[in-house]
C-alpha cells in the first residue's frame, strides 16, 4: 500500500507553541512525551515511514545517508521529505530541538515502539530509528494472516512478489520496507513457519504453513 497522498491531520496540540518546548514539570513532561510518541506513530503510519532519520527530521534537512538499494533510497527520500513538518511547525515557527527529538525516540524505545538502527542510543548515537507503528512481530502476524486468506500455504514466493506483486496490492504488506520484511520473515523462520531460499538479490520464501519439522540426524551404529 503506497503512502497516503492526503495531508496528515495533525492533532490540536501540534498547533500550540508549548508543545514544542520541554515541560519542566515531570507529570506534564511525561504527558508531553506520550503525545509526541502517539503523533510520531500516527504520522509515520500515515506516510508509511519505517525508518526515521533523526537529523533530517529535527533539522528539516533533505540530507540522508546514501544507499546502493534504489528501493531503500526511494524510501529514505520519501521519509526525508515527509518528516520536514513532523517536528517543525512552520506556521508557528516552532521546532522541537534535536535533543528533545532524541528524548522522544528514547521514550518510544522504552515503550517498544521504536528502535535505533545504528549503534548507540540517545546522546551516544543512532541517527536513524525504526518506528514501530507495526512491530516486526505484528508484521509477521500480518504476513501469516495474508497467506491463510489467499491460500498460499506451501507456495514459494519471491520477496519482490511480497513487496511489489499484484497479490499484495491493497494490503499493508505491499511496499513494506525490505529490511522490515526480512525481520518479520526471520521470526516466522525461527518458529518453523517459513523457509528462505536463494541469494540476497533473488531470495524466495516458502509461505508459512504447517510448522517445518527438522528430522534430527542419526549417527550410524558402531559395528562390533
Automatic annotation (TrEMBL):
PANTHER family: VACUOLAR PROTEIN SORTING-ASSOCIATED PROTEIN VPS25, VACUOLAR PROTEIN-SORTING-ASSOCIATED PROTEIN 25. InterPro entries: ESCRT-II_cplx_Vps25-sub (IPR008570), ESCRT-II_cplx_Vps25-sub_N (IPR014041), WH-like_DNA-bd_sf (IPR036388), WH_DNA-bd_sf (IPR036390). Residues 62-84 have a biased composition (Low complexity). This is ESCRT-II complex subunit VPS25. It comes from the Eukaryota. The keyword Transport applies. GO terms for molecular function: protein homodimerization activity; structural molecule activity. Belongs to the VPS25 family.
Amino acid at each position: 500500500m503506497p503512502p497516503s497522498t492526503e495531508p496528515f491531520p495533525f492533532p490540536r496540540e501540534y498547533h500550540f507553541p508549548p508543545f514544542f518546548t520541554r515541560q519542566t514539570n515531570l507529570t506534564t513532561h511525561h504527558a508531553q512525551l506520550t503525545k509526541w510518541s502517539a503523533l510520531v506513530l500516527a504520522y509515520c503510519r500515515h506516510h508509511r515511514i519505517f525508518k526515521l532519520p533523526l537529523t533530517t527530521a529535527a533539522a528539516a534537512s533533505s540530507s540522508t545517508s546514501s544507499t546502493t538499494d534504489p528501493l531503500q533510497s526511494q524510501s529514505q527520500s520519501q521519509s526525508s521529505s515527509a518528516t520536514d513538518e513532523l517536528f517543525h511547525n512552520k506556521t508557528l515557527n516552532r521546532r522541537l530541538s534535536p535533543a528533545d527529538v532524541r528524548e522522544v525516540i528514547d521514550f518510544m524505545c522504552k515503550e517498544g515502539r521504536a528502535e535505533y538502527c545504528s549503534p548507540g542510543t540517545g546522546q551516544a548515537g543512532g541517527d536513524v530509528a525504526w518506528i514501530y507503528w507495526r512491530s516486526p512481530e505484528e508484521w509477521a502476524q500480518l504476513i501469516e494472516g495474508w497467506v491463510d486468506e489467499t491460500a498460499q500455504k506451501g507456495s514459494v514466493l519471491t520477496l519482490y512478489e511480497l513487496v511489489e506483486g499484484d497479490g499484495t496490492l491493497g494490503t499493508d504488506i505491499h511496499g513494506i520496507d525490505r529490511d522490515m520484511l526480512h525481520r518479520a520473515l526471520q521470526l516466522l523462520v525461527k518458529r518453523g513457519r517459513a523457509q528462505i531460499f536463494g541469494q540476497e538479490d533473488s531470495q524466495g520464501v516458502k509461505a508459512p504453513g504447517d510448522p517445518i519439522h527438522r528430522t534430527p540426524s542419526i549417527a550410524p551404529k558402531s559395528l562390533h
